[in-house]
Design brief:
The longest helix is centred in the middle third of the chain and has 18 residues. The two termini are 32 Å apart. The protein is an alpha/beta fold and 210 residues long. It has one domain: Muramoyl-pentapeptide Carboxypeptidase, domain 2, CATH 3.30.1380.10. Strands 3-5-6-8-7 form a 5-stranded mixed beta sheet, with helices on both faces. A two-stranded parallel ribbon has the order 1-9. Strands 2-4 form a two-stranded antiparallel ribbon.
């Protein structure tokens, strides 16, 4: 299974912003924000501009809704601990300190004590689709629903959900963003994951600790 833990090191990360440009996700841009998981509405300005451009590639009555962009270290630690607790209950035979168990957890939440997440760089988003009335489309599973159906290509979802996942990916890929295959909702540009998936040896957005 693809995991951020499998990303090769060393990978050159050359921060291209000084000072860092974090902007607020705003409905004035016709991009929604769902505060279910966080109240932090920040994202790299460059990445936000890409998402605004990607709106042009959505069909009528389709709109983006963002659940999370920049994620502070403390929040990454909280998410990691939640996933560790969940997976230790599902796989009680595994030693929680083993590399096998850590890699399993890393599929769903990047280990903050190692390489961390693209969210910590402000270059990744958890994103989905809503209609013009704000109703969420069937995506075959919830954002951060860390089950088998989180995988983009999971075969057990409906034809409608498959169509909607493809609409989301097509629009964002047209502006250069990439999907993390283990999470249908996770897209990024310029972080380590983006570099790995595009074949670049250089990531341009480093982790932040604001």
């Amino acid at each position: 299974m693809f995991s951020d833990a499998n990303l090769p090191e060393p990978l050159v990360i050359r921060e291209i912003e000084n000072p860092v440009n974090l902007v607020e996700i705003g409905e004035k841009d016709n991009i929604g924000f769902n505060p279910r998981y966080t109240s932090v509405r920040l994202l790299r300005g460059y990445v936000y501009e890409l998402i605004k451009k990607a709106r042009e590639h959505l069909p009528p009555n389709y709109n983006f809704i963002i659940y999370e962009g920049y994620r502070p270290l403390r929040s990454q630690i909280e998410l990691w601990e939640k996933v560790v607790a969940q997976k230790s209950a599902e796989y009680p035979h595994l030693d929680v300190n083993s590399e096998e168990f850590i890699a399993l957890c890393d599929v769903f939440a990047a280990n903050p004590y190692r390489q961390g997440s693209g969210h910590q760089s402000g270059a990744a988003v958890d994103i989905s689709l809503v209609d013009d009335a704000g109703r969420e489309y069937d995506m075959g599973g919830e954002v951060r629903g860390f089950g088998e159906n989180a995988d983009f290509d999971y075969p057990g979802i409906s034809a409608e959900a498959r169509k909607n996942r493809n609409i989301l990916r097509a629009a964002l890929e047209k502006v250069g963003m990439v999907n993390y295959p283990a999470e249908w909702w996770h897209y990024s540009f310029g972080d380590r994951l983006w570099a790995r998936l595009t074949g670049s040896k250089l990531a341009v957005f480093a982790k932040l600790d604001l």
